[in-house]
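Pilot study result, target chain (240 residues):
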Amino acid sequence: MGKELIQCAKCRVKKKICQTEEGTGPSFCPTLNKHQAISQALEIYKDPQIREFARQASIQEGECYANRSFEEKTYTEPVKTRLQEVCEFAAKMNYKKLGIAFCNGLREEAMLLQNILEKQGFEVISVVCKVGGIPKEEIGIKEKEKIRPGQPENMCSPITQALVLNEEGTDFNILVGLCVGHDSLFLKYSQAPCTVLVVKDRVLGHNPVAALYTSGSYYKKLTQAKFGKGGAVKQNVSCQ
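Predicted structure:
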């Protein structure tokens, strides 16, 4: 038999060992089995900068709820938007210069974000995905692979975005709507820590979790059709 996969998303244990010392876990539980990784992480957290970053992130998490109490039955009420969290966390970390890496399709949202961050007292550097004006042919894109074949199209260059923000010395970078894969490259090459404010979803108004909520109804095709390199294999999926 092969090595058992870690599948925390499929854990159905009610009293989980990752949440309480009296808990337990399934056979694939990393809290029970991955002692080396856990110990290695604890060593990394001993770095003063990493420790402070993690500490402030945990404090920020707690402050997002009202009615916190030692009583288990007390209802904790969420009270802060993610945008407010970003502002507060950056202030907690004493960051002065923030970077925004945004998609050209979300330029208005990026402008609103920059204005808000500046009102909060931060210096803001914002860089659009098309920075550099590099033709898509530079990375081997064929004419038929363009959004509008037959017309000039410049590529999104998240690596350029990251390098520009690196040169500007940003303390903290915020992603706004970068495409799948482009966001990965930005995160790989950014020297400053990053957070994601907006995730691009062209169909669902940048709310990709809606596809999860409707995967048993309107978006049933997500579980009934095989998605390959060129899109979904056609299936007879009934409309609801």
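One observation from the pilot: DSSP finds nine helices and eight strands in the chain. A full batch analysis is planned for the follow-on phase.
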